[in-house]
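Hello again,

I reread your note about wanting to compare the complex against the isolated chains. To keep things tidy I'm splitting this into two emails, and this first one only covers the full assembly. Below are the input lines as submitted, including protein chains and any nucleic acid or small-molecule components. They are followed by the predicted structure of everything together. The single-chain runs will come separately.
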Amino acid sequence: MGLIVAKLWSFFCNQEHKVIIVGLDNAGKTTILYQFLMKEVVHTSPTIGSNVEEIVVKNTHFLMWDIGGQESLRSSWNTYYSNTEFIILVVDSTDRERLAISKEELYRMLAHEDLHKAAVLIFANKQDMKGCMSAAEISKYLTLSSIKDHPWHIQSCCALTGEGLCQGLEWMTSRVGLR
Ligand SMILES: Nc1nc2c(ncn2[C@@H]2O[C@H](COP(=O)(O)OP(=O)(O)OP(=O)(O)O)[C@@H](O)[C@H]2O)c(=O)[nH]1
Ligand SMILES: [Mg+2]
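Full-complex prediction:
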Protein backbone atom coordinates (compact mmCIF):
# COMPACT_ATOMS: atom_id res chain seq x y z
CA MET A 1 0.00 0.00 0.00
CA GLY A 2 2.81 2.37 1.02
CA LEU A 3 4.57 1.63 -2.25
CA ILE A 4 1.48 2.44 -4.28
CA VAL A 5 1.01 5.73 -2.45
CA ALA A 6 4.68 6.56 -2.97
CA LYS A 7 4.42 5.75 -6.69
CA LEU A 8 1.27 7.83 -7.11
CA TRP A 9 2.86 10.69 -5.18
CA SER A 10 5.96 10.59 -7.33
CA PHE A 11 3.84 10.37 -10.51
CA PHE A 12 1.81 13.45 -9.61
CA CYS A 13 4.77 15.41 -8.26
CA ASN A 14 6.90 14.77 -11.30
CA GLN A 15 4.21 15.10 -13.90
CA GLU A 16 5.22 17.60 -16.56
CA HIS A 17 2.91 20.42 -17.47
CA LYS A 18 3.24 21.62 -21.02
CA VAL A 19 3.60 25.35 -21.56
CA ILE A 20 3.92 27.26 -24.82
CA ILE A 21 5.56 30.69 -24.82
CA VAL A 22 4.20 32.72 -27.71
CA GLY A 23 4.07 36.32 -28.82
CA LEU A 24 5.36 38.49 -31.62
CA ASP A 25 9.01 38.56 -32.62
CA ASN A 26 11.18 40.67 -30.32
CA ALA A 27 8.69 40.44 -27.43
CA GLY A 28 11.27 38.83 -25.13
CA LYS A 29 10.14 35.18 -25.07
CA THR A 30 13.58 33.58 -25.27
CA THR A 31 14.98 36.07 -22.75
CA ILE A 32 12.18 35.09 -20.34
CA LEU A 33 12.73 31.34 -20.84
CA TYR A 34 16.43 31.59 -19.96
CA GLN A 35 15.74 33.94 -17.03
CA PHE A 36 13.45 31.20 -15.70
CA LEU A 37 16.15 28.59 -16.22
CA MET A 38 19.38 30.35 -15.29
CA LYS A 39 18.33 33.61 -13.59
CA GLU A 40 20.45 35.54 -16.05
CA VAL A 41 20.12 37.41 -19.34
CA VAL A 42 21.37 35.48 -22.33
CA HIS A 43 22.26 36.94 -25.69
CA THR A 44 19.44 36.02 -28.08
CA SER A 45 18.87 36.05 -31.79
CA PRO A 46 15.46 35.63 -33.42
CA THR A 47 14.21 32.09 -32.77
CA ILE A 48 13.68 29.95 -35.83
CA GLY A 49 11.63 26.96 -34.69
CA SER A 50 11.66 26.61 -30.91
CA ASN A 51 13.63 26.16 -27.71
CA VAL A 52 12.44 23.76 -25.04
CA GLU A 53 13.49 23.60 -21.39
CA GLU A 54 12.21 22.02 -18.20
CA ILE A 55 11.57 24.53 -15.43
CA VAL A 56 10.87 23.24 -11.91
CA VAL A 57 9.01 25.48 -9.49
CA LYS A 58 8.26 24.12 -6.00
CA ASN A 59 8.19 20.50 -7.21
CA THR A 60 6.03 21.40 -10.19
CA HIS A 61 7.64 20.50 -13.50
CA PHE A 62 6.86 22.68 -16.50
CA LEU A 63 8.01 21.75 -19.98
CA MET A 64 8.28 25.10 -21.69
CA TRP A 65 8.31 25.55 -25.45
CA ASP A 66 9.53 28.96 -26.59
CA ILE A 67 8.31 29.40 -30.15
CA GLY A 68 9.66 31.85 -32.73
CA GLY A 69 7.30 34.79 -33.22
CA GLN A 70 8.21 36.11 -36.66
CA GLU A 71 5.24 36.53 -38.98
CA SER A 72 6.25 33.66 -41.26
CA LEU A 73 6.46 31.29 -38.24
CA ARG A 74 3.12 32.13 -36.62
CA SER A 75 1.07 29.82 -38.87
CA SER A 76 3.01 26.87 -37.44
CA TRP A 77 2.37 27.73 -33.77
CA ASN A 78 -0.59 25.34 -33.88
CA THR A 79 1.74 22.36 -34.33
CA TYR A 80 2.76 22.91 -30.68
CA TYR A 81 -0.76 23.14 -29.21
CA SER A 82 -1.70 19.56 -28.32
CA ASN A 83 -1.68 18.83 -24.56
CA THR A 84 -0.81 22.43 -23.70
CA GLU A 85 -1.91 23.38 -20.17
CA PHE A 86 -0.56 26.93 -20.12
CA ILE A 87 -0.09 29.60 -22.75
CA ILE A 88 2.37 32.34 -21.85
CA LEU A 89 1.72 35.27 -24.17
CA VAL A 90 4.59 37.75 -24.07
CA VAL A 91 3.80 41.31 -25.12
CA ASP A 92 6.42 44.00 -25.76
CA SER A 93 4.84 46.82 -23.77
CA THR A 94 6.55 49.43 -25.95
CA ASP A 95 5.11 48.03 -29.18
CA ARG A 96 1.87 49.99 -29.42
CA GLU A 97 1.65 49.59 -33.20
CA ARG A 98 1.52 45.82 -33.07
CA LEU A 99 -0.70 45.29 -30.02
CA ALA A 100 -3.62 44.70 -32.39
CA ILE A 101 -1.70 41.80 -33.95
CA SER A 102 -0.98 40.31 -30.51
CA LYS A 103 -4.71 40.58 -29.78
CA GLU A 104 -5.60 38.79 -33.01
CA GLU A 105 -3.14 36.00 -32.24
CA LEU A 106 -4.44 35.68 -28.67
CA TYR A 107 -8.06 35.23 -29.72
CA ARG A 108 -7.08 32.88 -32.56
CA MET A 109 -5.35 30.66 -29.98
CA LEU A 110 -8.23 30.79 -27.51
CA ALA A 111 -10.60 29.61 -30.24
CA HIS A 112 -8.42 26.63 -31.13
CA GLU A 113 -9.86 23.33 -29.92
CA ASP A 114 -6.47 21.99 -28.78
CA LEU A 115 -6.18 24.94 -26.37
CA HIS A 116 -9.69 24.92 -24.94
CA LYS A 117 -8.43 23.74 -21.53
CA ALA A 118 -5.38 26.01 -21.42
CA ALA A 119 -4.89 28.83 -18.90
CA VAL A 120 -3.28 32.03 -20.17
CA LEU A 121 -0.58 34.09 -18.52
CA ILE A 122 0.13 37.39 -20.25
CA PHE A 123 3.48 39.00 -19.55
CA ALA A 124 3.54 42.76 -20.17
CA ASN A 125 7.29 42.74 -20.76
CA LYS A 126 9.89 45.52 -21.09
CA GLN A 127 8.48 47.56 -18.20
CA ASP A 128 11.94 49.14 -17.84
CA MET A 129 11.41 51.13 -21.05
CA LYS A 130 10.29 54.73 -20.89
CA GLY A 131 6.77 55.34 -22.18
CA CYS A 132 5.79 51.66 -22.15
CA MET A 133 2.17 50.66 -21.70
CA SER A 134 1.13 49.47 -18.24
CA ALA A 135 -0.35 46.02 -17.65
CA ALA A 136 -3.72 47.72 -17.04
CA GLU A 137 -3.59 49.48 -20.43
CA ILE A 138 -2.65 46.26 -22.19
CA SER A 139 -5.36 44.35 -20.34
CA LYS A 140 -7.94 46.90 -21.45
CA TYR A 141 -6.78 46.88 -25.05
CA LEU A 142 -6.79 43.06 -25.17
CA THR A 143 -10.26 43.08 -23.51
CA LEU A 144 -9.08 40.40 -21.11
CA SER A 145 -12.08 40.86 -18.83
CA SER A 146 -14.25 39.45 -21.65
CA ILE A 147 -12.43 36.10 -21.52
CA LYS A 148 -14.71 33.79 -19.57
CA ASP A 149 -13.79 30.36 -20.91
CA HIS A 150 -10.08 30.36 -20.03
CA PRO A 151 -8.43 31.32 -16.73
CA TRP A 152 -6.12 34.26 -17.37
CA HIS A 153 -3.73 36.50 -15.53
CA ILE A 154 -1.68 39.49 -16.62
CA GLN A 155 1.67 40.28 -15.03
CA SER A 156 3.98 43.19 -15.74
CA CYS A 157 7.63 42.22 -15.98
CA CYS A 158 11.11 43.04 -17.12
CA ALA A 159 12.97 40.04 -18.53
CA LEU A 160 16.30 41.83 -18.21
CA THR A 161 16.08 42.13 -14.43
CA GLY A 162 13.70 39.21 -13.86
CA GLU A 163 11.22 41.47 -12.08
CA GLY A 164 7.68 40.07 -12.20
CA LEU A 165 8.65 36.67 -13.61
CA CYS A 166 8.37 34.77 -10.29
CA GLN A 167 4.91 36.19 -9.70
CA GLY A 168 3.85 34.88 -13.11
CA LEU A 169 5.22 31.43 -12.32
CA GLU A 170 3.50 31.46 -8.95
CA TRP A 171 0.17 32.10 -10.63
CA MET A 172 0.83 29.13 -12.91
CA THR A 173 1.73 26.79 -10.04
CA SER A 174 -1.41 27.90 -8.19
CA ARG A 175 -3.47 26.78 -11.22
CA VAL A 176 -1.88 23.35 -11.68
CA GLY A 177 -4.44 20.58 -11.41
CA LEU A 178 -7.43 22.94 -11.26
CA ARG A 179 -8.70 22.09 -14.77
N1 LIG B 1 14.67 46.71 -22.46
C1 LIG B 1 14.28 45.43 -22.47
N2 LIG B 1 14.67 44.63 -23.46
C2 LIG B 1 14.27 43.33 -23.44
C3 LIG B 1 13.46 42.82 -22.40
N3 LIG B 1 13.21 41.52 -22.67
C4 LIG B 1 13.85 41.24 -23.82
N4 LIG B 1 14.48 42.32 -24.28
C5 LIG B 1 15.29 42.44 -25.51
O1 LIG B 1 14.43 42.27 -26.62
C6 LIG B 1 15.14 41.64 -27.69
C7 LIG B 1 14.37 40.44 -28.19
O2 LIG B 1 14.34 39.45 -27.16
P1 LIG B 1 14.08 37.90 -27.49
O3 LIG B 1 13.95 37.22 -26.17
O4 LIG B 1 15.09 37.39 -28.43
O5 LIG B 1 12.68 38.00 -28.22
P2 LIG B 1 11.76 36.79 -28.77
O6 LIG B 1 10.39 37.10 -28.31
O7 LIG B 1 12.33 35.49 -28.35
O8 LIG B 1 11.85 36.99 -30.34
P3 LIG B 1 11.67 35.87 -31.52
O9 LIG B 1 12.53 34.70 -31.17
O10 LIG B 1 12.09 36.53 -32.79
O11 LIG B 1 10.21 35.52 -31.55
C8 LIG B 1 16.53 41.30 -27.14
O12 LIG B 1 17.42 42.31 -27.53
C9 LIG B 1 16.32 41.32 -25.63
O13 LIG B 1 17.49 41.63 -24.90
C10 LIG B 1 13.06 43.71 -21.34
O14 LIG B 1 12.34 43.36 -20.39
N5 LIG B 1 13.50 45.00 -21.44
MG1 LIG C 1 13.09 33.91 -29.38
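For quick reference: Helices lie at 2-14, 29-38, 71-74, 99-110, 135-141, 165-175.

B.
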